[in-house]
Amino acid sequence: MQRPTIKTIAQETGLSIATISKALKNSPQVRPETRAIVVAAAERVGYELNMHGVQLRTGKTYQVAAIMTAPGPKQQEWEGVEYAQLLSGISWALEESPYRVSLYAVRNFEESLATIRQIVSLKKADGIIVSGTRADDPRVRIMQDADFPFVTYGTTIHNDPHAYVDADNEQMIRRSVARLVERGHRRIALINPMADLSYAITRLDAYRGALDIAGLPFDPALVVHDRLTPAFGRESVLTMSRLPDPPTAYICANEASALGAFSGFHERGLVHGRDAVINATDDLNVSQYFAPPITTYFLPINEPSELLGSYILRRMEGEPPEALQALIMPKLIERSDDRVVPKR
Amino acid sequence: MQRPTIKTIAQETGLSIATISKALKNSPQVRPETRAIVVAAAERVGYELNMHGVQLRTGKTYQVAAIMTAPGPKQQEWEGVEYAQLLSGISWALEESPYRVSLYAVRNFEESLATIRQIVSLKKADGIIVSGTRADDPRVRIMQDADFPFVTYGTTIHNDPHAYVDADNEQMIRRSVARLVERGHRRIALINPMADLSYAITRLDAYRGALDIAGLPFDPALVVHDRLTPAFGRESVLTMSRLPDPPTAYICANEASALGAFSGFHERGLVHGRDAVINATDDLNVSQYFAPPITTYFLPINEPSELLGSYILRRMEGEPPEALQALIMPKLIERSDDRVVPKR
DNA sequence: TATCAAAATAAAAACGTTTAACTTCTTTGT
DNA sequence: ACAAAGAAGTTAAACGTTTTTATTTTGATA
Known about the structure:
2 copies of one chain form a homodimer. In chain A, helix 11 (about 255-270) links the parallel strand 8 and strand 9 (about 275-280). With about 350 residues, the first copy, chain A, is of the alpha/beta class. Chain A has helices at about 5-15, 15-25, 30-45, 50-60, 85-95, 110-120, 140-145, 170-180, 200-215, 230-240, 255-270, 300-315; strands spanning about 65-70, 100-105, 125-130, 150-155, 165, 190, 225, 250, 275-280, 295-300, 325-330, 330-335. In chain A, helix 8 runs parallel beside helix 9 (about 200-215). Strand 2 of chain A pairs antiparallel with strand 2 (about 100-105) of chain B, so a sheet runs across the interface. The first copy, chain A, binds a DNA duplex (30 and 30 nucleotides) through helix 2 and helix 4.
């Protein structure tokens, strides 16, 4: 027995396939009574819309492309693990819609650029979600030029306005620094993501601004940029703790680097809360299990990810991008006093 | 200007669309010279196959459904993070093929069952990759009954043979236990995944077998089953360390639970290597950053994930499932001596 | 050179849907 | 009472491909 089509329903009801099609999509051209008959018949025969027909006819793909930048296979590091939660959040937001998440794993920025170019020009999806935005992001421009719906996870700085979701990095860093200064810290390290990422710049600027306000000097030796792996956090601590005037606080951009920082503490014999402290930005709620638990700004990743999903839906419906911008302020979770007794 | 189709090429070359179609798929029915002409023309006009037409005509979807079981949004726990790497591995394995990974996030087993039922009956994908297998898995049976290509990440115990990829849990646990026994441990705890998962049973059986061989008694109080979150690892340590005769070694099923176990150590004032030790199964290579680093069986997750990708491709090509089964033995990484001085 | 089989190409139908254009029927306004 | 307008439905074409069937071309043979 074949899968029923609108033709099946047409025969079943004696109506034409055009009417069936219209009835099923609630066109005002068909009478409510007729629609009821059609719907009943569809129900009876177990009809389900065949997307392939729709896609061919309308050119819509009903796919949302999620561009996932993950390091290559050789690169065995704890990086980008929050992507799992990000994807599931997006997927759930699309659940009630006919759209599916189609995954495009890429190794680096260039690949993501090429992939996006292809998706846009060959219309392999109806919308794109992309993360790891740069200050001036060519991918954003490509999609804007083609008038292609997209949402970024992360802001840009020099691009025209577009739909985005991001944590409020600016506020987060300003308050982090201010709080540490209040607690007597004068040498605060910033473990920052890759320098070309937009939020690295935002964080750095906020950091410098906060230092200014506190009347503290900016020391480039206390700022590092790289991929946010544990290895990076570890190396940073190993290096900076050897400075003549080492930091008493480390602000880590995520939990992976914070974990690595702990590893560096262990290696150097540093004790958290005595020699220095670690703060972090948390989106997996894992810092509470560190020993000791650390103070973090916590933004449960499902929030931005579900927002990404609903934004791309609304963007594909034609809503203007200006209405689809969210900066979310993470919640401060103070798990540690974070005071450090000044040496001597 | 419209996107070129085979019709464009037909006009361009003066051939019929049937010939174009055949030429482009290397049918022996078309002369090499003709094919050359067609290919050249296709190149010239920048032709790309339109999948929608193909899909409608052939019924193939060129989608591989990846069923991702992730806890609901409220459930803010570090769980299932390795899924990100899993998905990217699969996605890379499919890169050269026309197939794409389509993501289906589900909250629990029942949802995954329903989702798979739907994918199979409505043919929403050409193949399925599913994880979290149970000893007797109804999803496997559904797919087998429908003769639907699939690969599981994880074995089953009571199902008919099918394609799978898994770590060799049996060997891993046997050797883990034997190694700990060699180092003087007589009370070894097993932090195991949910009891209905196939690998929980495999691990438990191996654990009992290894204890038997070592002449040690089996104590049910030393075995716990639950979702592998840090919270679970932590709770397990908090509880077990209060036993009259507490364990001196904890074998954790993944890194999340191992991290939680450390948190439990910290809470109880236990020192790793003095009071007890933690071993784990590692697929993200993160245990090296614990303080102190712990001994693990390491299986870089990209290995099984790329295997999953290539297996599903071969399965969709019609290879028999018996040829597509892999049990991978993780590599022992001894980061700690793991001897514990007996109390008193 | 005529014949025939084989090889190469063309024609046409089909996959399931949407939609523009058309027909029929009913209602409304003068 | 009748034309015009509106409502509800139908017809037919179209989206881009594959594949079955039909037709033409080619080359070998008698």
